[in-house]
């Protein structure tokens, strides 16, 4: 397990657009933030181009790993304080093009882009509004994690250190019809303490500081569920990590700023 700071720390490493500048007549001119310019200008910014490319790359990874099928799944990322880029509806995540990606506001209104925004954007928006650390959201249907979701259960914790480090306890949100506001609000009780949430009878949703990191969480959750189910078939008792080793992991997570529902008791003892 590599838990060094240069690894998967959920903090954006790229230089914010507002901190970039250009030299004009010997002076550094600040580039306006995306929210300071029109939706059309924000949609055509260099930052938006880079985020679209990341969304497309992650969409292909999801499709290649069979974490989505048909037109399923959706991806979004914050662009400044007031805009969101998201995948469109009715397009396979393996076939995305830059012009497909939609620019929306935090109310879900489409401001730019050729496609119709995903019907499940409301889910993403509730996560962004509830937790300012969430800068990107990936929702998909990986089979082993979804198997837990359709039973209304979460995988047990305490078995693999990488899972403990980057996810830990997951949560199960109640079922509501996908695409509705009621569905979007099912995750609200869990957003502060969980970065990976199982959606009953549906799939999973993960948030992080970047689209790539959110997809990493999808991989970690899915492979953990798969490994656990395979281990169950061996017919031998599972070996759990000692409590003191879990405590060490939680202390590292606290320093890294990663969420975990077990952190409150840990912080209370400081």
In short:
Helices cover 36% and strands 16% of the residues. It contains 9 helices and 10 strands.
Can you put this structure into words, describing what you see?
Mean pLDDT is 89; it is low at 3-27. The radius of gyration is 19 Å and the shape is globular. The protein has two domains: 32-119, Class II aldolase/adducin N-terminal domain (L-fuculose-1-phosphate Aldolase); 120-270, 3-Layer(aba) Sandwich (L-fuculose-1-phosphate Aldolase). It has helices at residues 39-43, 46-64, 121-130, 143-151, 161-166, 181-185, 211-234, 243-256, 263-268; strands spanning 21-24, 27-30, 74-79, 83-86, 102-105, 110-112, 136-140, 171-173, 196-199, 203-208. It is 36% helix and 16% strand. Helix 4 (143-151) packs across helix 7 (211-234). Strand 5 (102-105) and strand 6 form a beta hairpin. By secondary structure, the chain is α+β, with helices and mostly antiparallel strands. The chain is built from nine helices and ten strands. The strands form two sheets. The chain has an eight-stranded mixed β-sheet, with helices on both faces. Strands 1-2 form a two-stranded antiparallel sheet.
């Amino acid at each position: 397990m590599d838990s060094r700071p240069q690894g998967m720390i959920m903090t954006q490493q790229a230089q914010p657009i507002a901190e970039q500048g250009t030299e004009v007549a010997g002076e550094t001119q600040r580039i306006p933030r995306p929210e300071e310019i029109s939706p059309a200008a924000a949609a055509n910014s260099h930052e938006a181009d880079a985020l679209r490319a990341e969304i497309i790359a992650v969409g292909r990874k999801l499709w290649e790993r069979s974490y989505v099928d048909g037109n399923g799944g959706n991806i979004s990322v914050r662009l400044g304080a007031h805009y969101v880029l998201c995948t469109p509806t009715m397009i396979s995540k393996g076939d995305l093009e830059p012009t497909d990606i939609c620019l929306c506001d935090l109310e879900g209104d489409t401001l730019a882009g050729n496609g119709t925004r995903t019907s499940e954007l409301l889910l993403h928006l509730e996560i962004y509004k509830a937790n300012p650390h969430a800068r990107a959201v990936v929702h998909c249907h990986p089979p082993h994690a979804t198997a837990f979701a359709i039973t209304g259960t979460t995988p047990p914790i305490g078995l693999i250190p990488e899972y403990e480090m980057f996810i830990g306890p997951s949560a199960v949100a109640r079922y509501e019809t996908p695409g509705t506001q009621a569905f979007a609000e099912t995750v609200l009780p869990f957003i502060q303490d969980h970065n990976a949430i199982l959606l009953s009878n549906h799939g999973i949703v993960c948030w992080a500081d970047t689209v790539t990191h959110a997809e990493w969480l999808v991989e970690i959750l899915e492979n953990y569920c798969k490994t656990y189910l395979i281990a169950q078939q061996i017919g031998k008792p599972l070996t759990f990590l000692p409590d003191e080793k879990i405590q060490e992991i939680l202390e590292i997570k606290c320093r890294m700023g990663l969420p975990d529902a077990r952190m409150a008791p840990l912080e209370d003892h400081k």
